[in-house]
Design goal:
Strand content: 25-35%
Radius of gyration: 27 Å
Strand order of the largest sheet: 6-5-9-2-1-13-16
Number of strands: 30
CATH topology of the largest domain: Immunoglobulin-like
Structural class: alpha+beta
Number of helices: 16
Largest sheet: 7 strands, mixed
Distance between the termini: 49 Å
Length: 614
């Protein structure tokens, strides 16, 4: 089959532009249309797997030009994400076998996230979904990708990418290709899907590597301080990666990839991760990363390890085990499934579980983290309006497009999905006396779905639970995922000899407001349904300038919450646009958002070993 040859040039880093070229040969019979009207369409994906929102990457394409042979031809936008290269009859008649199509386009890259593309003088990052137009009918063609950096007297860059390189490529000691000014680095991909599933990070990278069960793992960082303790990060992740490989392949202990690349963009204030088949792109606060010579890690470091653990677990759960609706992905439109609570929620359950099993999170820290997850779900009235299965289905229109009413309308399939996993795991362990667990279900799903490439059907999961464990949980799973009933979290934790309780906070009253303080007052961001603020008529977008007889500052607001009593009437003054508004709030009794998990003082009945203690 004809190969697709892509070339990416770091064309204008000051303007944040990548230039992309594509060259391929096409046989006459592969052209679309008929007679004298013949063409080939090139399309850009509209979304990126793992981030369920139509992102319209084509908006960043400035132009597309094309040549047939060496003759420039018409290339017009046919749809929002598709360009049509026209081939006239004379050009077709002048060749016997195939035509050479050459295209070029420019992409604006200033999206500092794990989903898009970003370029400046110091580094470049891109996902293939942001850069690469694919000719129709060539989705399965092999691909050669070349990356060039025009210019002279520029410092060398390293490239972090999970794709294999051309033989003889100059690399650093950890296997990262060296990109010199005026030079080129070439990669190979099996097909277009593989091309766009291997992001690229390049720049003055800090790089370290480690081996986990025979597999090389590279950790490449851009933007971190010079004293970053990257070796510590690698040493901490090694047992986590080994534990995950062993979970899915306890006998062979073999990973589904030969090399894995962590790519971290360390920022002043950022958080995110996106999984790929043998790599992940990460965004995290540089100030929360460990420093060489400093024994105590920053407070947020456990969260960073959890992020790495989460994305690594996706190598199995989502990248290879996935909903049937994603097999294959249709990157032109939404792909609906009600199962993201399994693929994202279970991954959110296992990320901290695997840290604990690897000895990187003690039980106290694990239980605190679980308490925060429970609080996150319980504090939002959206859990009473949307099931976790509906949340999965609505990801395209609600979860990734949250507005001021989000706390009232939606529940996270990540967070509540992790609590569903907790309940399923506890039920299996309790009913089998600790002989079976959710681990057995994940291993069976890996054998049936991950290794075969077959997608999980919408109604199939309860049958896998029964087959893997002998436990029938169809009714419970339906209740926990298809309804808005509260989850039996207390019963799940009791199976491990634990108790769940709410702890008192410092606030004496509850108003139901979330806002941002500005010099002129509080800009209301969200109002919780059923709250005193809701009853008073306060709305998102209102600017509150006075409350309780005083100018509203953050200090005054906190003192008001801490010193007032329930049923006290609180008068507020503000503006809605240019209109003066007054509100009377009847202060409510606070319901603590803090949830604590502790050992039972007196255990009743039998308990089973907790999954995080294995």
């Amino acid at each position: 089959m004809t190969m697709l040859h892509y070339q990416v040039a770091v064309a204008d880093p000051k303007g944040h532009y990548f230039d992309v070229q594509l060259q391929f040969e096409i046989a006459r019979e592969q052209l679309q249309g008929k007679d004298e009207e013949r063409w080939i369409d090139l399309s850009l994906p509209a979304w990126i797997p793992g981030s369920y929102l139509i992102r319209e990457f084509a908006k960043n394409v400035l132009f597309v030009r094309a040549r047939v042979g060496h003759v420039e031809t018409t290339c017009a936008r046919e749809r929002k994400d598709t360009w049509r290269v026209h081939v006239d009859g004379a050009q077709i008649g002048s060749v016997s076998q195939s035509l050479l199509i050459q295209c070029e386009w420019r992409v604006y890259a200033w999206d500092l996230s794990v989903r898009g593309a970003h370029l400046d003088d110091t580094h470049g990052f891109f996902n293939g979904t942001s850069l690469f137009l694919c000719p129709k009918g060539f989705e399965h063609a092999p691909v050669e990708l070349s990356i060039t950096r025009p210019g002279e007297n520029l410092p060398d860059w390293l490239i972090a990418c999970g794709l294999p390189t051309q033989a003889g490529t100059l690399k650093d000691p950890h296997g990262c290709p060296v990109l010199r000014a005026g030079s080129m680095v070439k990669f190979q991909a099996a097909d277009f899907d593989s091309l766009i599933d291997h992001p690229v990070e390049m720049g003055a990278l800090q790089v370290e590597s480690f081996t986990a069960l025979g597999v090389e793992h590279v950790f490449a960082v851009y933007g971190a301080d010079a004293d970053l303790d990257l070796l510590r990060i690698c040493n901490d992740l090694k047992p986590v990666c080994e534990a995950q490989i062993a979970l899915f392949e306890p006998e062979t202990r073999q990973a589904p990839f030969e090399r894995y690349v962590f790519m971290l963009h360390a920022t002043d204030n950022g958080y995110g991760g996106l999984e790929h088949r043998n790599s992940t792109a990460l965004l995290f606060n540089a100030g929360e990363l460990p420093q060489r010579g400093v024994e105590k890690a920053p407070k947020g470091y456990e969260g960073f390890l959890g992020l790495c653990s989460h994305e690594y677990f996706h190598s199995w759960n989502v990248k290879r085990m996935k909903p049937a609706a994603f097999v294959p992905y249709d990157l032109t439109q939404e792909n609906y499934t009600r199962l993201l609570w399994i693929f994202e929620g279970f991954t959110s359950y296992y990320d901290d579980v695997m840290l604990a099993r690897a000895g990187k999170l003690n039980e106290e820290a694990y239980l605190k983290s679980m308490g925060r997850n429970i609080a996150q779900v319980m504090k939002g009235p959206g859990r009473l309006n949307q099931s976790v299965a509906d949340s999965s289905f609505d990801a395209w229109t609600k979860y990734y497009r949250q507005d001021e009413n989000a706390p009232n309308a939606i529940v996270s399939y990540y967070t509540k999905g992790s609590l569903v996993a907790l309940c399923i795991d506890a039920a299996i362990r309790q009913q089998t006396g600790g002989q079976k667990s959710l681990d057995d279900v994940m291993r069976l799903m890996w054998q049936r779905k991950g290794l075969t490439g077959e997608g999980l059907r919408e109604d199939e999961f309860p049958r896998l639970v029964l087959e893997a464990t002998g436990i029938e949980l169809s009714r419970e799973i339906a209740q926990w995922t298809d309804s808005t009933d509260e989850l039996p979290l207390g019963d799940a934790l009791k199976a491990y000899g634990l108790t769940l309780s709410q702890s008192q906070n410092e606030e004496q009253i509850y108003l139901g407001l979330h806002g941002q303080f500005k010099p002129e007052g509080m800009l209301v961001k969200q109002v919780i349904n059923g709250s005193p603020a809701h009853a008073s008529g306060i709305s998102a977008g209102d600017l509150l300038v006075a409350m309780g007889g005083k100018r509203l500052t953050e200090t005054h607001y906190k003192r008001l919450l801490a010193s007032s009593q329930p049923s006290t009437e609180v008068h507020a003054i503000g503006f809605r646009a240019e209109r003066l508004m007054e509100f009377d709030l009847l202060a409510g009794k606070p319901a603590s958002n803090e949830w604590t998990i502790k050992k039972l003082e007196q255990i009743e009945g039998k308990t089973v070993p907790a999954p995080w203690l294995q």
